[in-house]
């Protein structure tokens, strides 16, 4: 993140027709900071690094790091004000919008190739309604403060700029083309509690996840194995990243050099992860599987579970939503590639790969299972047996 100079309004005001500059100058004014090179140069740079998505990866890391900075500031306010015990969720709303605007800004500034498509939860409809002025003002201030404090860009959003940035590239994803997939704050309940959450960003190319980054501001950098989300190490803030065919890395969110993520090779009795919230995953079902595997659960919020699994803190992640819940692609896209590029496997409860090409939802069978290649066959059998038993018990009622 580079130091800022005088800040320009964003988006820039339109030029009066009488003095409209040349198209090259207009392009420069629209993007006051130096842009990346031509697509051809980008391709050469990417090939030199051996990663065909090198430019996108760098942009994605920068985007989630900046968004995480904004979320950290809001979470600190929430924890200090004790708001998490009340029904007032507006700070989360402000952070959700703020995170989306910053990610979208960075991607548009740093990745210049092709149309911009973003699959994410927020749009501007609610913010355009009467009574939303105050929250819009808060979002605008917070976004501008984050940009200015980090010195990341030389711009300042107007309120109208904020509204149009939220809708920029709004998309439902799908099987063709490139789509960014964002979870602005994954693990909202953990965020409110002052616990784990993640900013999760992935890139789909022709329906496949080709890149994923997970910023986990509260995840310890050392292993959390058997510690329910905490570790004895002091340093927190982990940034996981992975590109298809290139492996996964973990580094500290404040910029220490990346390390390769260990491949998953923990023994059968290593701990396993599941959702903190029992409303999000059936703890009774995972409990019966854990008995087979002699593994106690570690309950942490968000896709931080995928990151922790990828670096070998545990060997299994099980997630069994209650009947009728449809999993969204942004809850799994980034996390799943971090695990698969670390040598793990992520499937549904039928053993099928997750299919991210069907739009905003995953079309999957009963649940998500992530583990290493050695454990998957026996785990899948344990899961299917446990589901069968649960269904039989339910049919007897
Ligand atoms: N009923 C139900 N069943 C299953 N899943 C649900 C349900 N409700 C929500 N969600 C989604 O769960 C996301 C949070 O992820 P986790 O369940 O891993 O984290 S947590 O332990 O619940 O905090 C959470 O992501 P965020 O909304 O981004 O926090 C939701 O997308
Ligand atoms: Mg989520």
Please, could you describe this protein's structure?
- This protein is of the alpha/beta class and about 400 residues long.
- The protein is built from 11 helices and 14 strands.
- It has helices at about 25-30, 40-50, 55-80, 90-110, 135-150, 160-165, 190-195, 285-295, 305-310, 335-340, 375-395, and strands spanning about 10, 120, 155, 180-185, 200-205, 210-220, 235-245, 245-250, 260, 270-275, 295-300, 315-320, 345-350, 370.
- The strands form 3 sheets. A 7-stranded mixed sheet has the order 2-4-5-6-7-8-9, with helices on both faces. Strands 11-10-12-14-13 form a 5-stranded mixed sheet, sandwiched between helices. A two-stranded parallel sheet has the order 1-3.
- A hairpin with a 3-residue loop joins β7 and β8 (about 245-250).
- α3 runs antiparallel to α4 (about 90-110), α8 (about 285-295) packs across α11 and α9 packs parallel to α10 (about 335-340).
- The longest helix has 28 residues, at about 55-80.
- It is globular and about 60 Å long.
- It starts with 7 loop residues before the first strand and ends with a helix.
- The chain binds 3'-phosphate-adenosine-5'-phosphate sulfate and magnesium ion.
- Magnesium ion binds next to β4.
């Amino acid at each position: 993140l580079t130091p800022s100079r005088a800040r320009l309004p964003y988006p820039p005001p339109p030029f009066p027709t009488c003095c409209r500059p040349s198209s090259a100058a207009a392009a420069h004014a629209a993007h006051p900071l130096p842009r990346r090179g031509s697509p051809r140069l980008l391709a050469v740079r990417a090939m030199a690094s051996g990663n065909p998505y090198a430019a996108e990866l760098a942009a994605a890391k920068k985007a989630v790091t900046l968004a995480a900075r904004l979320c950290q500031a809001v979470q600190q306010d929430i924890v200090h004000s004790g708001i998490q015990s009340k029904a007032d969720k507006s700070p989360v709303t402000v952070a959700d919008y703020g995170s989306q605007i910053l990610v979208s800004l960075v991607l548009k500034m740093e990745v210049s190739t092709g149309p911009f498509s973003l699959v994410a939860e927020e749009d501007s409809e609610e913010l355009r309604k009467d009574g939303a002025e105050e929250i819009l003002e808060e979002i605008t201030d917070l976004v501008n403060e984050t940009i200015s404090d980090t010195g990341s860009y030389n711009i300042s959003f107007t309120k109208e700029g904020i509204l149009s940035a939220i809708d920029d590239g709004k998309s439902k994803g799908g099987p063709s083309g490139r789509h960014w997939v964002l979870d602005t704050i994954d693990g909202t309940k953990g965020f409110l509690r002052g616990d784990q959450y993640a900013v999760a960003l992935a890139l789909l190319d022709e329906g496949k996840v080709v890149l994923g980054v997970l910023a986990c501001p509260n995840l310890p950098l050392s292993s959390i194995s058997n510690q329910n989300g905490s570790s004895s190490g002091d340093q927190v803030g982990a940034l996981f990243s992975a590109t298809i065919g290139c492996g996964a890395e973990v580094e500290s969110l404040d910029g220490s050099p990346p390390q390769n993520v260990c491949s998953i090779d923990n023994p059968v009795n290593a701990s396993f992860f599941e959702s903190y919230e029992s409303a999000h995953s059936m703890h009774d079902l995972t409990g019966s599987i854990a008995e087979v595997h002699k593994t106690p659960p570690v309950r942490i919020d968000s896709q931080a579970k995928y990151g922790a699994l990828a670096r070998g803190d545990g060997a299994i992640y099980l997630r069994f939503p209650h009947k009728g819940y449809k999993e969204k692609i942004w809850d799994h896209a980034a996390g799943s590639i971090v695990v698969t590029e670390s040598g793990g496997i992520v499937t549904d409860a039928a053993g099928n790969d997750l299919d991210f090409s069907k739009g905003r939802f995953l079309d999957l069978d009963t649940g998500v299972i992530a583990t290493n290649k050695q454990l998957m066959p026996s785990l899948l059998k344990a899961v299917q047996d446990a589901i069968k038993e649960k269904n039989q018990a339910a049919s007897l009622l």
